[in-house]
Structures are given as structure tokens and as C-alpha cells.
Amino acid sequence: MNTIARFANDESGATAIEYGLIAALIAVGIIAAATTLGGSLSNLFTRIAGNLDAATTTAPKT
Question: Is residue 46 classed exposed, middle or buried when 0-12, 13-18 and 19+ CB atoms within 10 A define those classes?
Fold first, then answer.
């Protein structure tokens, strides 16, 4: 009986599980942010490239 009581009161495994859950939530947040920002950055660079291309093709020659 004493062994079962000690096992029931042991919380060392619970701490490791909590840290694992926190790490998983942080990873999900990073992936979500990268996915959201990835599309925005791609659109931004596409617009910049288009503007640079338009500026070089319409610039007057000196």
C-alpha cells in the first residue's frame, strides 16, 4: 500500500508533460506566424520586384 501511495503522490512526470505541452504550443505558434508572414512577405517582394522592373524599363536614357 505504501508503494501505491508514493506512486500516486509522485508529480515528477507531470512536470515533464507540462513542459512538453508548453513546447508544443510554442512550436504551433511559430509555425502559424511563419505561415501567415510567409504569404505577406512573398507578396511584398513580388510588388517590389515589379516596381523595380517597371522603374528600369521606363527610365529615360541620358
Answer: exposed
Please report the sign of the dihedral spanned by the C-alpha atoms of residue 33, residue 34, residue 40, residue 41: positive
Residues 53, 12: Cα–Cα separation, whole Å? 61
Residue 7 covered by a domain: no
**Domain containing 50: what range?**
15-55
Answer whether 0.70 is exceeded by the pTM: no
Tell how far CA 29 is from the center of its chain. Answer: 5
| Domain count across the chain | 1
pLDDT for 31: 95
Cα 16 versus chain centre, distance? 23
Looking up cell 510554442 gives 26
C-alpha cell at 46: 513580388
